[in-house]
Amino acid sequence: MVDWLFKWQSLLGAIIGGIFALGVALLVSYKASRREELTAAMLVVANLVTVKAAAKSLDELSQENGIEEKDIPYWMAEKLVQRRVKLSPMFEVSRIKLMPNDVLLAAHLELFQFIMNDVEMKLDALETDYRKFQVSGAPDRDSGTLMLDSEIIHSGFVKAAKHASCAERLISLKILSPYRIFHSLRIRLTPRKSEISCRKLLS
Asked: Domain residues of the chain, as ranges?
C-alpha cells in the first residue's frame, strides 16, 4: 500500500490540487456574479420605487386638491409632463440580468418597461402640444386626441406602478434577501394575498 501511494502520490496530488483550484475558481466566479446581480437588483429597485412613489404622490395630491374623477387623467398627464419620471439609462441592462432568476419577475419587469416606454412616447407628444399652446395659443392636435393620450398616460402609469410594486417585492425576496430559497418555496406553496394579486395582474 505504501509503495502504491509512493508511486501514485504525484498523480493524486495533482488531481486533488486541480479539484481544489477548480473549487476556488468557481467560488470566486460565483461571488463576482453575485455582486453584479446585487448591483443590478439595487439599481432596478431604485427605479421601481421612484415610479411607485410618484404614482402614490400624485394620487394623494389629487385627493388633497379635490380633483374630480373624470379630470384625473388630464390632470395627472399634465403633472407628469411637468415632472417627468425617467428610468435610469442602466435600467434595461440591469433588468435583463435579473430576468433569468424568476419567470414572474421577468414578466413584471418586461411589462413595466413596455408600459413606461409607451407612457414616455405619449408624454413627449403631449409636451410638444403644451409648448405649441404656450407659443400660439392652440395645440396642433384636437382636444379629443389630447384627452385620449391623457387617459392612456394615466392608466399606463397606474399599471406600471402596480407592476413596479410586484417586481420590487420579488426582487427583495428572491434576490436581495439572504433567505432566497425559503422565500421562493414559500411563495410557490403558500402565496400571500398581495402575491396572488400580482399573478392576477399578469393574467
From this structure: 34-202
Residue 200, C-beta contacts closer than 8 angstroms, at least 6 positions apart: none
Q: Flag the least confident range among 39-43, 97-101, 136-140, 161-165.
A: 136-140
For 46-62, what is the mean pLDDT?
A: 94
Helix (H, G, I), strand (E, B) or coil at 179: coil
Q: What is the pLDDT of residues 116-146, one digit of tens each?
A: 999 999 999 888 887 877 777 676 777 788 8
DSSP string, 60-71: HHHHHTT--GGG
Chain Cα centroid distance, residue 48: 5
How far is 106 from 99, CA to CA, in rounded Å? 4
The alpha carbon dihedral of 186, 189, 193, 198 has a sign of: positive
What single letter denotes the amino acid at residue 180? R
Cα separation, 104 vs 135, in Å, equals 47
Sign of the C-alpha dihedral, residues 95, 99, 104, 110?
positive
CA 201 vs. chain centroid, Å, equals 15
Q: What is the dihedral of CA 112, 113, 115, 118, to 10 degrees?
A: 170
